[in-house]
Write a structure and sequence with these properties.
Length: 168
């Protein structure tokens, strides 16, 4: 279980290292977008490692009621972490696409089309960030399940606080 926790933590750290450059991607930093894309490949590999390790834990240890919520939370968290990395990849690809090209000497109508394209890209990025938030919420729910044994999915914050205590 300790090794599994370590790999999931590594996956989360890799995603954080990928997410920080996303703010710079919006500033047209092509190299940072490339860094995010490389990190996404590492995260995919970590997900496969965690899945294999969880399979071994279930087969060899046959986790009891106390460990089973943790194993389930780790498995589901890994999936959400990988999906966050997928969203980061989408944003990086969008940023890389919009960072290419020199805009000097472009006619006014071309500039308007370019600005419209950038506006659409920003909507796309906003949608990806919303999905990242959804996955982060899922991970928080898995943590509550692993620690408290309470399934708080699809519940209101007030109900969660009543069940497991205040959130802050």
């Amino acid at each position: 279980m300790g090794r599994c926790n370590l790999i999931v933590t590594s996956q989360g750290t890799t995603i954080l290292c990928s997410a920080v450059p996303l703010t710079s991607c919006c500033k047209r930093a092509r190299a940072l977008a490339d860094q995010v894309l490389k990190g996404e490949l590492a995260i995919n590999s970590l997900e496969r490692s965690i899945d294999a390790l969880i399979g071994q834990i279930i087969a060899r240890r046959q986790p009891a009621a106390g460990d089973l919520p943790l194993v389930a939370a780790l498995s589901k968290s890994t999936t959400d972490l990988e999906r966050i990395a997928d969203e980061a990849k989408k944003i990086a690809l969008c940023a890389r696409k919009n960072s290419s090209g020199n805009r000097q000497g472009v006619r006014c109508d071309g500039e308007i089309r370019h600005m419209a394209g950038l506006a659409l890209a920003m909507v796309f990025v906003a949608k990806s960030l919303e999905r990242v938030g959804d996955h982060a919420k899922n991970i928080a729910e898995y943590v509550v399940y692993a620690v408290k044994g309470k399934d708080v999915r699809r519940t209101f914050v007030a109900e969660v606080e009543r069940e497991v205590g205040p959130t802050a």
